[in-house]
Automatic annotation (TrEMBL):
The UniProt record lists the keyword Oxidoreductase: no
Keywords: Cell membrane, Membrane, Symport, Transmembrane, Transmembrane helix, Transport
The name this protein goes by in its record: Putative proline/betaine transporter
General function of this protein: May be a proton symporter involved in the uptake of osmolytes such as proline and glycine betaine.
Molecular function in Gene Ontology: symporter activity
TM stretches of this protein: 56-75, 81-104, 116-134, 180-204, 216-235, 269-287, 307-324, 336-354, 360-377, 398-423, 429-448
GO cellular component: plasma membrane
Family, per entry: Belongs to the major facilitator superfamily. Metabolite:H+ Symporter (MHS) family (TC 2.A.1.6) family.
Ranges for domain Major facilitator superfamily (MFS) profile: 44-453
Membrane-topology annotation of the record: Multi-pass membrane protein
Major site of localization recorded for this protein: membrane
Membrane as UniProt keyword: yes
Region annotation Disordered: where it falls in the sequence: 1-35
């Protein structure tokens, strides 16, 4: 089968023109005959990175400042209960993500990827900015967590379309033999958003007192959402929709709505995809979002050092992501995804045991190692999921499978981890939870076909 190009002429994309490095460096290359030149791909990579970066910075700040937010929005008599309540709101906001996946998937497959992505970034930025304006529990009582929940639900609804849409956008623009490294831009930009959030949290906790943080310091990162969101929206509006979608839009064949087609004709890959996402869902939020709270609250590490360790791990994670994307292009998606699951099954518990060593250097090295293990899954997953579904339902299939697993297991991961520690009395409980997720993902990957060598399908 062949990749569809504008003008209705199918062509095989050899991917010989440019790779991601030349896209990012800005060097102009000649058109390769596929209808996409270097400048167009460079704009797509830049816009996808910045847009996803903005959305996930907005979304991640809540996790990094959870300990402070718990003191602002809930009664402080029982700090553990306040923290659990904060993570419960974090988890509840994920319940809307499957609904958002249906909405954004349908919108992206019927109206266009660019339209969906441009709208989602505005909604995310507005909700995040509003969080900065909510008074605390001491001022308005239970209205404070209620308003926070509303804002988090809106954030969850917006985020449900971002990851899937940006991945589909990049895969449909990428050369055939570079889809893995192009799609790796999405988790890399997600990590970059987390990195900025971690840097800001580190700076705030290092320079402000606990009283200043609870009074006004925690609001500063949320206020950044408005200008960042407008910049991301502007850049995305300058793009043209993908060649694959434009070709599909020119086809006047009557087809079922994307969601109906997805569940009737593509339910098997949908189930497998949701299972593969499970490791990403649990691993991402335990290792990259919950970890500073785990280190400071559960293990007693200094708060600033906890943020520093996570910040360094995130910086190395971004580099590992691109390496993983390249490996998936060379060796195939399945081999890399299987390696990720096996690594977590073998090394998660020993790694978490070392976190309690009391040595900051050990904690730092363990976090870097866990992040590297996670990139084997995260760096491969966007291209793998996008390739599993044809163009007509690609956005829908990706969005539903990704958000369903994240709603059930990702958003609940900090809450479940905290709850399991309290119930079992062991700080290793999150590690066992990660291993269970890796086992499920391993089975689903083994049942899925290899997708890296096949051209993208329309139907």
């Amino acid at each position: 089968m062949t990749v569809l190009r504008p003008g209705g002429k199918p062509q095989t994309d050899t991917g010989s023109d440019i790779d991601l490095r030349s896209s990012l460096s800005g060097r102009q290359r000649p058109n390769d005959g596929t209808g996409i030149d270097a400048a167009a791909r460079r704009r797509v990579v830049t816009a996808s990175f910045i847009g996803n970066f903005v959305e996930w910075f907005d979304y991640a700040v809540y996790g990094y400042l959870a300990a402070t937010i718990s003191m602002v929005f809930f009664p402080t008599a029982d700090p553990q209960a306040a923290l659990l309540s904060t993570f419960a709101l974090f988890a509840i906001s994920f319940l809307v993500r499957p609904l958002g996946g249906f909405f954004w998937g349908h919108l992206g497959d019927r109206i266009g990827r660019r339209t969906a992505l441009s709208l989602s970034i505005l909604i995310m930025s507005a909700a995040t900015f509003c969080i900065a304006l909510i008074p605390g529990y001491a001022s308005i009582g239970l209205w404070a967590p209620a308003l926070l929940l509303v804002a988090r639900l809106v954030q969850g609804f917006s985020a449900s379309g971002e990851y899937a849409g940006a991945s589909a956008f990049l895969v449909e623009y990428a050369p055939a033999n570079r889809r893995g490294i192009y799609a790796a831009v999405v988790p890399a930009s997600t990590a970059a958003g987390l990195l900025l959030g971690s840097l800001i949290a580190t700076l705030l906790t290092a320079t402000l007192s606990a009283e200043e943080m609870q009074s006004w310091g925690w609001r500063l990162p949320f206020l950044l959402a408005a200008p960042m969101g407008l910049i991301g929206r502007y850049i995305r509006n300058k793009l043209e929709d993908t060649p694959a979608f434009r070709e599909l839009a020119e086809d006047d064949t009557v087809v079922h709505p994307p969601m109906k087609s997805l569940f009737v004709h593509h339910w098997r890959p949908l189930v497998r995809a949701a299972g593969v996402v499970l490791l990403n869902a649990v691993g991402f939020y335990v290792i990259l979002s919950y970890m500073p709270t785990y280190l400071s609250v559960e293990l007693g590490l200094d708060t600033t050092r906890s943020y520093i360790a996570t910040t360094v791990a995130l910086a190395t994670y971004i580099g590992f992501i691109f390496l993983t994307g390249s490996l998936s292009d060379r060796f195939g998606r399945k081999r890399v995804l299987i390696s990720a699951s096996v690594a977590f099954l073998l090394f998660t518990v020993p790694a978490f045991a070392l976190l309690d060593s009391g040595s900051f250097v050990t904690v730092l090295l363990v976090q870097v190692a866990l992040g590297a293990m996670l990139t084997l899954n995260d760096g491969t997953l966007p291209s793998f999921l996008a390739e599993m579904f044809p163009t007509r339902v690609r956005y829908s299939g990706f969005a539903v499978s990704f958000n369903l697993s994240n709603a059930l297991f990702g958003g609940t991961a900090p809450f479940v981890a905290t709850l399991l520690i309290g119930a079992t009395g062991t700080d290793l409980a999150p590690a066992w939870y990660l291993m269970a997720a890796a086992a499920v993902a391993l089975v689903c990957v083994c049942l899925a076909p290899e997708t890296s060598r096949s051209p993208l399908r329309m139907d």
